[in-house]
Amino acid sequence: MAVDHAAAEVDHLAAERAAARFDVEAMKIAWAGSRHAVDVADRMARLVASDPVFRKDNRTMLSRKDLFKDTLRKAAHAWKRIVELRLTEEEASLLRQYVDQPGYVDLHWGMFVPAIKGQGTEEQQKKWLPLAYKFQIIGCYAQTELGHGSNVQGLETTATFDPMTDEFVIHSPTLTSSKWWPGGLGKASTHAVVYARLITEGKDYGIHGFIVQLRSLEDHSPLPGVTLGDIGGKFGSGAYNSMDNGVLRFDHVRIPRDQMLMRLSQVTREGKYVQSDVPKQLLYGTMVYVRQSIVADASKALSRAVCIAVRYSAIRKQFGSQDGGPETQVLNYRTQQSRLFPLLASAYAFRFVGDWLNWLYTDVTQKLEVKDYSTLQEAHACTAGLKAVTTSATADAIEECRKLCGGHGYLNSSGLPELFAVYVPACTYEGDNVVLLLQVARILMKTVSQLTSGKQPVGTMAYMGKVQHLMQSKCAVKTEAFEARALRMAVNCAQNIGQASNQEEGFYERSPDLLEAAVAHIQLIIVTKFIEKVHQDIPGHGVKEQLQNLCNVYALYTLHKHLGDFLATGSLTPKQGALANEQLGKLYAQVRPNAVALVDAFNYTDHYLGSVLGRYDGNVYPALYEEAWKDPLNETVVPEGYHEYLRPLLKQQLKLSRL
Ligand SMILES: CCC/C=C/C(=O)SCCNC(=O)CCNC(=O)[C@H](O)C(C)(C)COP(=O)([O-])OP(=O)([O-])OC[C@H]1O[C@@H](n2cnc3c(N)ncnc32)[C@H](O)[C@@H]1OP(=O)([O-])[O-]
Ligand SMILES: Cc1cc2nc3c(=O)[nH]c(=O)nc-3n(C[C@H](O)[C@H](O)[C@H](O)COP(=O)(O)OP(=O)(O)OC[C@H]3O[C@@H](n4cnc5c(N)ncnc54)[C@H](O)[C@@H]3O)c2cc1C
């Protein structure tokens, strides 16, 4: 039973649920990963849903100030509950997820703590982490500047070592060097990991991380030399406006030398720069960590939107039989299915590839601990590429779900506008998606160039080693078609770049094609990981069959959508393309009776979904009607402003008509 629906009196979706051909409880386990994962998520979701402090149905009606205060209140209350109930790290993180309101704690736990863990020495970790763990300090991640975000090497903030005092002087030399965007910086954080150019002995050693205190721990006022503020309102109502994305300027602010994060490189007491024997890209480790978690978040956001759209499509009826019989559920329209079911399949696909990516990340981290850097490039390519492809697809899908819900999808009470507004910046933060895909493309080009030297590609690039076969064969098997498409697109790009006067120029000219080659490579990974998942032993009546269906939907839909690539590279014939489309229609018919149960398997509470259209009990119309009356505009029958602006107008019209 989904968590807060036990009391639902009428289940308007009961017939849909009864029609499902698989065990929903077992599917919940397949989705969450284990029985334990289902149980703990269930408990945390229930805890949040039943606590009035975590109410969020009025969020889009709050002013920015009230919304921010509400966020502070929720964060403090969540922390109180975490301490009182002695929640584990896993439980606490789920509780924060279900509170579902972007706020400074996301950056504190999600970036500040990981940056210190990844880039701080053991000594620095011992000093700073206990303070952060107990919330005696609040931290954020201050990298992006007004003038530069994507180009990290172009950042301008300086950290100049002063050997006289054994301190770094942090300074913002220009307006464009102002830190701009960091979440939690504007109003909440007391500390930040600040990225700045390290200058010592007159030499610029590039970007490094520093722990800098920004606000007094006594009264929260900015420390001398520090200018701080919020950067202003953002897209949509409610949504990401709960976050205090901030601006920060330094005027020669001094910090002790030991606040430079010194795991990757050090500055000695005398001011000598010492590079450790670790790759300098580890400076970007926090971003890699967050990118992998963003892939898991994509499946959460997408599954929420799909859950709303599927349930509502089963309730909503339009048109019907000619003889006045019942109208048709819009979920029965073939067009609705062909728009919605690929999104349902994508939610599952992203979930499983997210799990795999988490495994890859953990594996790389363990290897790094024993100084094995061999999989660093693979981790970068997979996190960057999957982050880009899954967030772009999810942002588009949320908007598609809004349209699938017709007019009511445009109401705030559908939950979809806010979900979209909160979600879309994921295409930009933690690396603009185009910039990240170009990173993948660079690695693809490097791999192609090494093929002739006999170097065998490994990991997710291993298929490129089958170059002779994949360049020539006609592909009968689905994965092979995806492999051939990705490889041939990459090889085409490499050949075209090879004809340019130099590599950089060629890469620049061919970058639109390179983006598409990178997408093809990443889609191959998603399809492969879904197939690997369905080949596992998956218990529960009908569960494996449903996942197999969804896997086929994802693969064939992707193939259909990018048929141009497959045909242009000769990876498929037009006849195979047409057959794939035929097959897709049949698969949708198999998904149809299971659709509602497949979204029930996400096990979301009505509180977390935050949507009158996606209610578990399907009792949509009374809820929509009731919700409308809660709008502040309906507090008075005659609107404020009537006497000033409507009455005189109407009176004037009355006078004119009497003339
Ligand atoms: C949740 C909401 C909160 C949001 C928070 C934020 O947004 S926070 C702000 C988020 N901000 C952003 O996300 C900013 C996005 N921008 C960036 O991440 C970087 O500027 C860049 C990667 C685009 C270029 O960097 P660059 O000019 O320094 O480098 P380059 O291109 O010249 O490549 C040199 C080599 O490094 C390799 N390599 C690169 N990255 C990694 C890695 N992570 N790991 C391992 N390796 C990596 C690359 O493959 C290449 O290898 P090769 O060929 O030499 O063997
Ligand atoms: C909601 C939100 C929260 C954020 N939180 C944080 C935070 O906590 N801490 C932090 O430090 N930062 C944060 N950021 C900043 C974020 O990381 C950057 O905005 C992001 O990295 C993109 O950089 P940019 O803004 O410089 O975009 P730009 O690089 O200026 O992008 C503008 C356009 O240029 C294109 N472009 C750029 N470079 C290239 C290229 N080489 N080739 C082709 N096209 C290119 C892009 O594709 C895009 O279309 C946040 C941003 C947002 C929106």
UniProtKB/TrEMBL annotation:
Q: Mostly located where?
A: other
Give GO MF terms, alphabetically: acyl-CoA oxidase activity; FAD binding; fatty acid binding
Please give a single GO biological process term from the UniProt record. lipid homeostasis
Residue ranges that the Swiss-Prot or TrEMBL entry lists as coiled coil: none
Acyl-coenzyme A oxidase N-terminal domain location is: 23-138
Acyl-CoA oxidase C-alpha1 domain sequence ranges:
284-445
GO CC, alphabetical: peroxisome
Keyword annotations: FAD, Fatty acid metabolism, Flavoprotein, Lipid metabolism, Oxidoreductase, Peroxisome
Q: Which Pfam families match?
A: ACOX, ACOX_C_alpha1, Acyl-CoA_ox_N
- Active site location: 430 (proton acceptor)
Q: Which InterPro entries does this entry report, sorted A to Z?
A: ACOX_C_alpha1, Acyl-CoA_ox_N, Acyl-CoA_Oxase/DH_mid-dom_sf, Acyl-CoA_oxidase, Acyl-CoA_oxidase_C, AcylCo_DH-like_C, AcylCoA_DH/ox_N_sf, AcylCoA_DH/oxidase_NM_dom_sf
Name its co-factor(s): FAD
Q: Can you say where in the cell this protein is located?
A: Peroxisome
- Residues annotated as binding FAD are 144, 183
What positions does the domain Acyl-CoA oxidase C-terminal occupy?
479-651
The entry's family comment says:
Belongs to the acyl-CoA oxidase family.
Please identify the protein, giving its name as recorded. Answer: Acyl-coenzyme A oxidase
Q: Which organism is it from?
A: Panicum virgatum (Blackwell switchgrass)
